[in-house]
Design brief:
The structure is a single chain. The protein is 25% helix and 26% strand. It is an alpha/beta fold and 256 residues long. It has 2 domains: 1-117, no CATH class; 155-256, Rossmann fold, CATH 3.40.50.
Length: 256
């Protein structure tokens, strides 16, 4: 894959804009508001009261709806149920965020089979495993944002077309084979995660990688081993940025 910085910047900006949504309170009448509406943010109380399916089905009036955020409650994690997923699957979405809900593998497969998503965000408020085998159901996905999971990759399906990957507060990034699973990655962002030397070496073998961001991360090696690996990435043509308090640390690990 050839990397076009202008195309990527346009894609990345579109993704960021896609996370800004119109909030529609429960008592808002949707009739007469359908023209030109591109995105909604729906909180748990709106989605899961006694008439949740009826209320959610009103979104089917928005034939240009391209972005949707479903946000649950931190106090009580609920499961994203199939009747709700069936309604979502009828929408012409290109960007979907599921925040704070339990999502079973079969539900992810259902979403992937019915939606042509370009951007997908999954956020968990609990440390639960997420097997990246679900990506086989999202062949057109270009942007993936994962927060709060223990990542597992036990599958051997064909590689994805993802070009932007964000991993925040996740365990297990060091076990991912970026070369075979994400061969077209142009940019990777780690936040509040543990980054292994294995992951950095793996990323360094990608010819498509252009940008690596690491913010508030910890590492399994410090000192010269870490700086040498970062320098190797830079020599490979990768822009590496983040918070670099570890540069002054010794081989023994981070200081106070």
């Amino acid at each position: 894959m050839s990397f076009d910085s202008e195309d990527f910047l346009s894609h990345y900006n579109s993704y960021k804009k896609g996370r800004r949504f119109i909030f529609v309170p429960e008592d808002t009448r949707l009739s007469g508001l359908t023209s030109g509406v591109l995105g909604f943010r729906i909180c748990g109380a709106y989605l899961y009261d006694t008439s949740s399916e009826a209320k959610l089905s009103r979104l089917l009036r928005f034939d240009n709806l391209s972005s949707l955020v479903l946000r649950g409650s931190r106090d009580s994690t609920q499961e994203l149920e199939e009747p709700v997923v069936a309604i979502i699957s009828k929408l012409p979405l290109r960007s979907l965020a599921i925040v704070g809900y339990k999502v079973r593998p079969e539900v992810l497969d259902l979403l992937g089979s019915n939606l042509q998503l370009a951007a997908f965000q999954l956020v968990s408020f609990e440390d639960v495993p997420l097997d990246l085998g679900f990506l086989k159901s999202f062949p057109q996905l270009e942007t993936l944002d994962l927060t709060g999971y223990t990542l597992v990759d036990s599958a051997t399906e064909a590689p994805t077309k993802i070009i932007f990957l964000r991993i925040a507060g996740c365990v297990g990034s060091g076990t991912l084979d970026f070369t075979s699973r994400f061969p077209d990655l142009a940019a990777v962002e780690f936040e509040s995660s543990r980054v292994s030397m294995t992951a950095l070496r793996n990323l360094g073998s990608l010819d498509s990688l252009n940008h690596l961001v690491m913010f508030n991360c910890s590492y399994d090696e410090y000192g010269s081993m870490l700086t040498d690996q970062l320098q190797a990435l830079a020599k490979h043509g990768v822009v590496v940025e983040g918070d670099y308090s570890y540069v002054e640390e010794t081989e023994g690990g981070p200081g106070p």
